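Q: I'm teaching a short session on how sequence maps to structure, and I want students to see two examples side by side rather than one. Could you give me a first protein with its sequence written out and its structure tokens following it? Keep the formatting plain so it prints cleanly on a handout.
A: Of course. Example one:
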Amino acid sequence: MKHTIYMLLIILFVVIAGCANNNDAGENNKDQQSAIHVKNQVKDHEKERDAGAIAEKLVELASSVPNVNDATALVVGNVAVVGIDVNSKIDRSRVGTIKYSVAESLKHDPYGANAIVIADPDTNVRLREMGNEIQQGRPISGIMDELSAIIGRLMPELPADIFEHKNVAPTESNQNQLPAEQEQELDKEQQDQSKHHIKNRENPKVPQHD
């Protein structure tokens, strides 16, 4: 009789221990699933933060150029658009020269090398609004479509209006216009950028950092 009781107690102990192990395994599995979900959320936040950090850096570089009162930047995938605010009284040809200087300063940044530089006040306001909309969760696809429309409106054949001053005849009073060789160089660079953005616009990629 005692032997039977001992056997029953041993069996009961084994059953209880097995149930406890299964519960622990279930909890561990839940914890692992939670960790994966959180990790994915962190990656999404890192992508947004990376794009924001890139935009801030481009704004800093653009704002450091003389005669640039303020700047804004929007980074969506592999497309970067930088808007600059200059004095409305500045001659149009000088605005083009300032944009060229901004483009030169952006070249030293990996994401600024192919950035599109604009100086249209209304577009600058819209860029800021679009940046806020991204933070509020607006789909990137909608932003890309609108950004493409803006670029196409400002410069139908090229992705930026950075050298719109090239058709302005030089005058003796404006000694700060771009030399012909620099204009030709800028023209070539913008054509290369146009091919780059047209190729990649349909498949945006969010910048990744190690």
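Q: Perfect. Now a second example for contrast.
A: Example two:
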Amino acid sequence: MSRWLQALLIAILGLVAGLFYGWRVAPVEYFDTTPDTLHSQYKSEYTLMVAETYQSTKDLELAARQLALLGSAHPAEIVQEALDYADFTPEENIKLAALLDKIEAWQPALGDSTP
């Protein structure tokens, strides 16, 4: 067997062993991360959960704070993006649209400022 073939087989074996170790033996586990690191599909799911929470609590401030965890965009933009790009059922779209209606008109209450 030639040296090049041996080197190639060893490299392939090392790659396979490394992939097996990385995926099966010791995969990376994420914990205590923020929602803004989620994939766009999961961000849409999170937005739907916020809409469902809003439907039961009617707390717009809480919904806005939860949506703020997804990034610096206005909460209405985040909800609109979820409506545009996610594939939700009509019932779920109604929940998101109801939240969007309220959050578009929402103005955050300014707290007491102290110098």
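Q: What should students look for in example two?
A: Point them to this: The mean pLDDT is 90. Also worth mentioning: The helical segments are 3-25, 40-57, 60-68, 75-85, 90-104.
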